[in-house]
Amino acid sequence: MQPSPMSEALDLTCAPATDPLGLYRFRDGLYAVDLIAAAITEFDLFTKLAAKPSDLATACRDLGTHRRPTDVMLTLFAANGFLALKDGVYSVTQLGREHLVRTSPTFLGPYYASLKDRPVVKDFVTILRTDKPANWGSYKDEKPWTEAMLTDEFATGFTAAMDSRGFVLGPAMAKAAPVGARRRLLDIAGGSGIYACALVANHPGLTATVFERAPVDGISRKMIAKRGFQDRVDVKAGDMFQDPLPSGYDVHLFSNVLHDWDTDKVRFLLSASAKALPKGGLLIVHDAHLNEDKTGPAPVAAYSSLLMSVTEGRCYGVGEIRAMLTEAGFGDVRHQDTACDRSIVTAVKA
């Protein structure tokens, strides 16, 4: 009897036969409609911007909202053509004026009003006003995710979820990564180790270490062994915000990590990487990235709304990442698309 495709060993050097992009977008864009509903029903955002086009700081002041979530909200609307962004100022497009401004005869506000009591819509209103992330809609009684990850049950489920996402994203990232002759990879906050395993599978001269805090480090070891990579991928326990990054590595990877944190912590992590890498060392940032001027792509802007809701972070634009990498002491910054709206930004320690 032939094994079913689901029971076959996963080959991390190959892409699946079918493209799951649509399935990723369903999940990643889950919260975007709730953010649109909050903007219309609670803040009347488009009516206000139609009367007074504004930059980010002015919009925050006029709405009574915080910078990070407002940035995500305005980016989402610019990416979908409701707002235009020019010289840092957001204005309402014709599409927005016809359908999202209260004085328009074709205003869709009443159509969205039935959504205003959805739990995630209410969460977004609170997040915009306080900048404090909410929990996942299905984990209302759980601690914030950074604290919940210290418990075995939540950490196991969350790590397994991120692992399944990596089955497609990992090989595509690994094939695009310009590892060259470098030999030792540190996968910082590497979760299940799926990305470290994908990199060593695609670069035969490479070995890797996953750097994770407890209890995720134990989960990482089990999942790496289950894949059969324990001879080339090991695990070191540590907290990337509390402990120095281990030395002796010429490649660093942040895969789906920076999007969990606001800019102050992103700068801290990039600086820590620059300190630990030797001259010529490679940094790989694998994530969903917005474009240079943060006007798209729309699916990434939608994903950013989900991240803004449940983490301290958001999706960053390629220009934002480049500026922070340069500030940290990296050069030769490059961007390359990979799979399912993800991409890598690479940089070399100057």
Could you write a compact summary of the structure shown?
This protein is of the alpha/beta class and about 350 residues long. The chain has 15 helices and nine strands.
Describe it for me?
By secondary structure, this protein is of the alpha/beta class. Helix content is 45%, strand content 14%. It is built from 15 helices and nine strands. It has helices at 21-28, 32-41, 45-51, 56-63, 67-79, 94-99, 109-113, 119-130, 145-148, 152-176, 194-202, 216-227, 263-276, 298-310, 318-328; strands at 83-86, 89-92, 184-188, 207-212, 233-237, 251-255, 282-287, 330-337, 343-349. The strands form two sheets. Strands 5-4-3-6-7-9-8 form a seven-stranded mixed sheet, sandwiched between helices. A two-stranded antiparallel sheet has the order 1-2. A hairpin with a 2-residue loop joins strand 1 (83-86) and strand 2 (89-92). Helix 5 (67-79) packs antiparallel against helix 14 (298-310). The longest helix has 25 residues, at 152-176. The protein is elongated. The relative contact order is 0.13. Mean pLDDT is 92; it is low at 1-7.
